[in-house]
Design goal:
It contains three helices and six strands; from the N terminus they run H-H-H-E-E-E-E-E-E. By secondary structure, it is of the alpha+beta class.
Amino acid sequence: MSNEHTNQHEEELEAGAEVEQQNAEQEVVELTEDQQRIAELEAAVIAAETKFADQQDSVLRSIAEADNARKRAQGEIDKARKFALEKFAGELLPVADNLERAIQVANPEDEAIKPIVDGVELTLKSFISTIEKFGMTVIDPQGQPFNPEQHQAMSMQENAELPPNTVMAVMQKGYEINGRLLRPAMVMVTRAPEGGVDTQA
């Protein structure tokens, strides 16, 4: 083989190597560009997922706040409805008191006033039945243990027959409206006969 052929062969090999190197470099550039594009897309996906999670959290918070506001408003409406009659009911209590006093002072043996007493008793029953429909209840604790949350002790008296701190007499009945005290019952409470006051309710 002549030098000319050898040189030509070497040149061809070098040219082939250069082409291969260029191809390899181009592949590396293309691969790097692809990897860069993939990285950009991955970052965009992460950003989109983060934004979606933030928006979802914001929507859930808004729903929760709206629900809480609705519950608060409903609670206020219920409270207003429940106790709207409280002032009016308080003004009606003297009517019940006067009807009860009329029955207490009337002589049941007097035939002349018996129809009137019967009418007053029916009126009182009708009145109590009506106010109970609107959530009012009568507190009549005769014979029950003294309860400072519902009763007001007007006096104490020794009594050997009843346990200490028992309501032995009700001077004026109390009333509640929807579980809330409107007026305490005015009561007389028993105490131990030895003269010592039992303060245990």
